[in-house]
Structures are given as structure tokens and as C-alpha cells.
Amino acid sequence: MDRRIEDYAFIGDMQTAALVHRDGSVDWLCLPTFDSPSVFSGLLGTDAHGMWRIAPVGQALPRSRRYRGDTVILETEWVTSTGTVRITEFMPPRPAEAPGVPQLIRIVRGVRGTVEMSSTMRLVFGYGQVIPRRTRFQRPFGLARGLAVAGPDAVWSDSSVETFDAPDGTTRADFTIREGETAEFALTWQHSHLPAPPAPDPHQALADADAYWTGWASRCTYTGQHTEAVIRALVTLKALTYASTGAVVAAPTTSLPEEVGGERNWDYRFGWLRDAAITLACFLRTGYREEAGAWREWLLRAVAGDPQQLQIMYSITGQRDLPEREIDLPGYADSRPVRVGNAAAGQLQIDVYGEVIDTLHLGHLTGLDFHDDAHQLQLELLRHLEKVWRDPDDGIWEVRGPRRHFVHSKVMAWVAVDRLVQLIESGDAAGPLEHLTDLRAEIHRDVCENGYDTERNTFTQSYGSSELDASLLLIPQTGFLPPTDKRVIGTIEAIQRELSTEDGFVLRYPTAGSSAGVDGLLGDEGAFLACSFWMVEALVMIGRLDEADRLFDKLLGLRNDLGLLAEEWDSHHQRQVGNFPQAFSLFALVLAALRLAAPPVAAGVPRDDALVLDTGYVR
Ligand SMILES: OC[C@H]1O[C@H](O[C@H]2O[C@H](CO)[C@@H](O)[C@H](O)[C@H]2O)[C@H](O)[C@@H](O)[C@@H]1O
């Protein structure tokens, strides 16, 4: 069965995450951390690769589902001919100050009548490959308890109803729920050499999780008209944070395809400097400073001593070695290969210097305490950037074709220098101001001379190319040129003409279908949702507010019923594609909502209070 990506709900604890299908099946869960091998991999294969379904007997789909308030606690209501039950499922949050082993808790509550229920769990460790050894215990805490062990990992399962290990490798429970009754299930990961974990207290854990997420969401400072969408995006971004180190994963999944049935399947369970820097910029602009401070510490540890060795991504703990390999799973809707690890880790992507320094600078502007190591890091990164900015690179889209002089990369090199110039000019830090001012002017000249097509009045994807690229929409946001500049307006209009899908969303760049295009890959892909949100921002900046509003509303309409977005939208099949939920799409949503909430007073004339939106243009 083709299970749509948007049919999944996301729950997480800030160290790992699970995807729960609408039909009650947990089809993805990596333990103990985001980047560990999965124990439920049905998402990328079949039930035989691991899943855990709790649902009324004989009932395919629930009536409704939602998150409880501003939390990542999922509540699903099932209505049958004999009664109604609510299933509440969540992972107790593990913030840095209160670490703990990962746990998945599911509570079934009878709302009306009587409902026959079943639970079927198949744990298969190592991405659906390793069958665990299973043991049962005599109700040590009045709960049914089972243990599944494979090598270093143990998963303990506790429930208030009787369970049994079936010969087919599943652990099952058949039980009846009457109005007012509850049944509790908990799955707990533990190192296999350690003793049994204490019995879970599901109801206390639920109350604590509710208080944690509600408290976190209540600190948001956004007050525009899209509060629900913004808070949901922020809460999801927070849940994509690996709390103990401050890293942020790009998404909790691997290999959800950018084209169903295609080869564009990548592992996103790592900390990209680009994605994390923009996520943190988003947090800083909505009142969340603590997360930015923690990420800055992770960044300092990950980058280590020599900026020449900067990688564009690291593991959530800061490791550098992320070897890419293909694993033996059928793939989501037969989309193969399924990849683990990511070869993009070894790429040169010059834009990351700009994104990192921009976010560090925004931290400074929004009151994050001055950190001398972070300032030194910026200076060192800049010294290295000065050596490499003229080189061709792999660009923001991590293309696997030949390196090029991507215009976006050069613009972001300009951003890196510009933000340091601003910092030094403000008197808050020292540095070679005159030299940096000259360098900034040199990069600007280089881009305008080599990356702009005078005949078509548009910037191009790379020097000497006639292709377009949606990353050029960021030019006015960065402050590289003002939105009133005819080259900016020309570029926005060219992208609208040439990179729009028939339903009005934006592609990253042209792909070549059956031959390898600029990205070196076969096949096509969906509209990249972040680019469509950038179009919203660009339209606001050039004063086309109604159009921006309309596009934003259409984009909100692509979210699933829980407010979640994958990386891309397949306009042809009208479905979400790519890893899910993806930070890139969600932070772009938040930034577009902020832009809509503080539009320019007149076209191209940003307001002073837009400072927190544009560190570049508004001086
Ligand atoms: O499209 C080819 C590339 O796709 C992935 O990169 C994308 O995701 C990254 C994480 O969100 C993002 O930072 C990047 O801008 C996107 O292009 C994949 O990770 C690459 O390996 C792949 O070449």
C-alpha cells in the first residue's frame, strides 16, 4: 500500500523521533538517537521491517487526530460501531537539564461504549535486518514486561494489559476498553548490558510532557496572524534539536524520496551548518535565545581547531565521519536506494560561511552574550573564506555534478564579510575593517559582473550559465542588493516565469529528467517548499503583498492535518515528497510569516523595526 508521507505524525523527545501513521502504526523509530539504526523501519519497507500498531480490531482509519495544544503529544480518536477510544502517544521530552533514556508511551482511553483493541509490535533492529532475542517476565510491576535484545541495544516493553510473543516474531495484545478505562503501553531503550529500567509511570510522564511543551511554546514572541502555523513549526524545530549537544537535525528520516520511485533519497539525520544556522536564526527572531547559545557551543566543538577543516555537516554529537552507504530495504514506495550516511559531508559549500556568520551576528544583535571564542571563530572562518571564495563549489543544493561558480555561494561569501564589517563598525569587536570592506566590495563586483545576465535582466545559477536558481531569491533578504534594484526585481520575475510549477510553487532549479542535469542525478523532483516560502518573502520585499499573501496561504494549505511539511511538493501527484518533517521547510515558513507580519511601509522601503528580519539591508 502506498502510504502517503503526509499521513504520518511526528513525535519526538529531542534525542530521537518516531513517525506514526494515521492507521495507528509506528513505522519509523531510531534508537537511542536520531542517527541510530531504526527498530521500526516499515516506512522504508513493509511491516516485516518493524512496526507497532495499536488500533481497534477491524478498523482501518481513525475519525480524527491532532496534537494536544502546542505540544508534540499526538491524540487520535477512533470511532467504531461499538464505541470510541482515544489513543495518546508521545515521547517524554529529554531536555539537556533532564536527560534520560528514550521512551515511547501510548495510552488508550475508553471515551464511550466498549471497543475491542489489538496491539501488534514487531521489533527488527539494525534498519529492519536484525531479529532480536526476546524474553518475557512475570509481571514485575503488575505490568506485562518483555525484552528484546540485539547486540548493544535492549528494548523493554511494558503494558498494563497482557501481551504474548507470537511465533511470527510479533508481540501482541488483544484487549477490551470500556468507557473510562485506560490501557498503557511503554517502550524503553536501554544499553543491553545494563539492568532493567524502572517501571514507567505513563500518566505522570504525560503530565510532564504536556507541561514541558506548553511552557516552551508559551515563550514565543511572534504575534502575527499565523500563530498556529508558526508555533507548530517552531515546536517541531525544537523537537528536531538534539538537546544534549545543541545540534539540530535536518529531518528525522532517511531516504524519503524527492521523486517517488526515484533515486533522490538522502539521509537527513545530521547537523547541517546551513540548516541549523537558519533554524537558530528563526529561534532568535521568535524569542528563543537559549537554543542559539547551545548551538553555538555545538558549533565551536564541531568545527574544532582549524577552520580549513570545516565540514558543511557533522553528526549530532559533532563527529565528522558520515560515510554514505546503501542498505538493504525496499525503500518508501520502492524508491531506492535507501541510504545511510551522507557523502555531502565532504563537499565544499561556500554559502555555509555566510549562514553561520550571519546567525552568529544575529545572536549578537538580539542580545546573545558576547562569546570571544565564537568571535575568534568568525575571524578564522573569514580568513579561510578569503582563500576559497573564488573557487567553484558544490553549492547550497549539494549538487553531485561538476563544481561551479554558484552565484548564491558567492553572495553568501559577501554576507559573511558584510556581517563582520557591521560588527566591527558597531565597535563591539575588533578586526581589520579596511581590509574587510575592500574584500566585500571585491566579491560584490565579481558577482555583479559574472553572475548577472544583462540581456535577460536576471542573476543566473552560476557564472556563465543561463540557468536560473531559486536560491537567488535570497539576494534582497541578505542585503546584497536592495529590493528596489531592477536586477533583483528582474530575477524574482524570471524565477516566477521559469521555475514555477503549474500549481504556482517554486522549483530549486531545472532538472533534466532522463539525463543527468546540473545536480548530476537522473529524474526530476518536486517543488522545493523552502524556495516557495522565499518567493513569499521576495514578493513582500518588492511590495507585491497580495500576491505574497496568496502564495503563503496556498503553502499553508500543503501542510498535513497536523501542520507538518516534508521537503518538497509533488505538483503532479499532489502529495508531499522528501524527508519529513523537514527543518528547511518549517524554518522557511516561520521566516515568511515574520516577513508578512512586518512588511515594508512602501515597496522596497524596509521599516526600521524590521531589524530582526534583515541584518543586512537594514542598517
Ligand atoms: O539534492 C541533492 C542533495 O540533497 C540533499 O541536500 C538537501 O538537503 C540538505 C539538508 O536539508 C540541505 O542543506 C541542502 O540544501 C539540500 O539540497 C542531500 O543531503 C545531498 O546529499 C544531496 O546531494
Features:
hydrolase, single chain, Glycosyltransferase, three-stranded antiparallel β-sheet, Glycoside hydrolase family 15 protein, Beta-galactosidase, Chain A, domain 5, 26 strands, 15-stranded antiparallel β-sheet, disordered C terminus, binds ligand LLGJG24Q, 14 helices, alpha+beta, hydrolase activity, 6hp_glycosidase-like_sf, 2 domains, 619 residues, globular
Detail the topology: elements first, then pairings:
Elements: E1 8-12, E2 17-21, E3 25-30, E4 38-40, E5 51-56, E6 64-67, E7 74-79, E8 83-90, E9 103-122, H1 125-128, E10 133-137, E11 144-150, E12 153-159, E13 164-165, E14 171-178, E15 182-191, H2 202-218, H3 227-239, E16 241-242, E17 247-248, E18 271-272, H4 273-285, H5 290-303, E19 313-314, E20 325-327, E21 338-340, H6 351-365, H7 372-388, H8 407-425, H9 433-450, E22 452-453, E23 458-459, H10 475-478, H11 486-498, E24 527-528, H12 529-541, H13 545-556, E25 568-570, E26 575-577, H14 583-597
Antiparallel strand pairs: 1-2, 2-3, 3-4, 3-5, 5-9, 6-7, 7-8, 8-9, 9-14, 9-15, 10-11, 11-12, 12-15, 13-14, 16-17, 18-19, 20-21, 22-23, 24-25, 25-26
Helix pairs in contact: 3-14, 4-5, 4-6, 4-14, 6-8, 7-8, 8-9, 12-13, 12-14, 13-14
The chain binds ligand LLGJG24Q.
Residues 250, 264, 266, 268, 272, 274-275, 342, 344, 396-398, 400, 519, 584 line the site of the ligand OC[C@H]1O[C@H](O[C@H]2O[C@H](CO)[C@@H](O)[C@H](O)[C@H]2O)[C@H](O)[C@@H](O)[C@@H]1O.
